[in-house]
Amino acid sequence: MRTPSSASAGTARARRARLAAPGLLLAAALLAGPSATASNNATTAQSASQSAAAAVGDGPAAYHGTVVSGDNPGQAPQNTALQLSNGDALVLQAHDVGHDAAEPTIGADASGAVFYAAAAFDGIGGTAKTTVFRSTDSGQTWQKVSPSIADTEEHQATLDPYIDVDPVGRVFDVDLLLAGSHLSFSDDQGRSWTTTALTVAGVNDHQTLAAGPPPAGNPALQPVDPRFPKIVYYCVNQASDSGCARSLDGGRTFAQTATPAFLGVDPAAGGVCGGLHGQLVADADGRIFLPKDHCGFPWTAVSDNGGDTWTRVQVSDKIGEADVDPAVAVDSAGNVYEVWWDDEHHLPYLSLSRDHGRTWSAPRMIAPPGVHEVNFPTVTAGDPGRIAITFPGTTVDNRSDPTRPWSSYVVVSSNALDTDPVFLSNIANSPDDPVHRGECTGRCAGMFDFLDIQVSPADGTAWASAVDTCTGDCVTNPSAPADSARGIAIQALNVPLRTVTR
């Protein structure tokens, strides 16, 4: 996706691809929800069946995943495409937020406002700094709403950016400062902010924040902020462990929890596992879940008493993890979903738990047909069985090819709890305008450590963050290196994850 001429408004692109063959009409339950159309200034993607240049996987698809119940196979599994009838393709719309954005997080409130944390090296002396953007017109334009005093931003630097938008309406902006974090929160969509600081004693790294209701396992924990009836949790990598703190007053003050979510040295898991973890989530009963690549495999730590004790569960002992950021989500019925990318073929896997994280299903490989490698898979959930996943992926099966293109994928399922669920996928960029070229392991040029996807409580649609590292010469010159780190917001328009009643 090329950089737009104006940074004040996000450009929108829709991919409403249709397959020419009548094909299989997917069940109405799978595609329940209002029909969506692209906005007036969106471009409509060419039919995948008519695009000779598009490889398999470079457009809309429907497919079942592949369950891998044993060891990771030596030959990478591939999923087979189902036929799509006209109108059944997943519709995505991508918006340029007008700013570079390393490891961007995203969220939406009940009015439909979307918030985006865009970190770039534009601070004092070229240091990293986070700019918070807000869109109130479905991503068409973006305004800066960073915490400020007299037009001077309060968060002058960051080591890690993070934003969390709670459905209640409170927006949290958290910037890591190594010994702790700078925290601001807003109850009026960023027009005004309350600023404080928080820490877990010792080194703080790779912070995550989430809020949940009072936990059933610890009824003594009760929030005291009448405007925010939830408990706020903050977890960090301390190398020696994954430590957490909690706030009963909406984020003004924090106290460390009794025990860490994970131990950095864990003989039961394989030895020295470190403290790096994924992003924290909470369920409707106040349980909190922290996913982790723990000694090379996906795990999740679960607490039902506000973080005072944790149950650590290995999600899979067969499919290893390629990097440190697995992701977890919980649907409205309490089903838990974890995604990660494997350490051999770099493909995305999904496992689910129907008992609040105690036991997990066999991993299911969920890459769209023709996709050979991904990075940063992350997941969100809405109503039971309705999930969305995003990641950058490539259809070129050659890791030594420095020119291979990558696209931003979104995958949704409306029946993920079924024995053989159906997944719909599409890419948010044109196949001839990649978001990256070459190798995409580790930080993948300017993408850094993770991406994000969340459900909007306003209309139930999923919003994903992405980074476009290829906006200049590398769009048309395959040999040109990554040249950008442009922040992109993607909305999945026509398959809502949550039923919204007015």
Your description of this structure?
The structure is a single chain. The chain has strands at 12-15, 61-64, 66-67, 81-82, 92-100, 102-108, 114-120, 129-135, 143-144, 148-149, 152-153, 161-165, 171-176, 181-186, 194-198, 205-212, 231-237, 241-247, 255-256, 262-263, 265-266, 271-272, 281-282, 288-294, 297-303, 311-314, 327-330, 336-341, 348-353, 364-365, 373-374, 378-381, 387-394, 405-413, 422-427, 436-437, 453-455, 462-468, 486-492. The chain has 502 residues and is mainly β. The chain starts with 11 loop residues before the first strand and ends in a 10-residue tail after the last strand. Mean pLDDT is 89; it is low at 1-54.
Outline type: globular
Helix content: under 10%
Structural class: mainly beta
Q: How many strand units?
A: 39
Distance from first to last alpha carbon: 36 Å
> Which sheet architecture does the biggest sheet show?
8 strands, antiparallel
Strand content: 35-45%
Helix count equals 0
Weakly predicted, low-confidence segments: 1-54
Mean of residue pLDDT values: 89
Radius of gyration: 21 Å
What is this structure's SSE topology?
Layout: E1 12-15, E2 61-64, E3 66-67, E4 81-82, E5 92-100, E6 102-108, E7 114-120, E8 129-135, E9 143-144, E10 148-149, E11 152-153, E12 161-165, E13 171-176, E14 181-186, E15 194-198, E16 205-212, E17 231-237, E18 241-247, E19 255-256, E20 262-263, E21 265-266, E22 271-272, E23 281-282, E24 288-294, E25 297-303, E26 311-314, E27 327-330, E28 336-341, E29 348-353, E30 364-365, E31 373-374, E32 378-381, E33 387-394, E34 405-413, E35 422-427, E36 436-437, E37 453-455, E38 462-468, E39 486-492
Antiparallel strand pairs: 1-5, 2-4, 2-35, 3-30, 5-39, 6-7, 7-8, 8-9, 10-11, 12-13, 13-14, 14-15, 16-17, 17-18, 18-19, 18-20, 21-22, 23-24, 24-25, 25-26, 27-28, 28-29, 29-30, 31-33, 32-33, 33-34, 34-35, 34-36, 37-38, 38-39
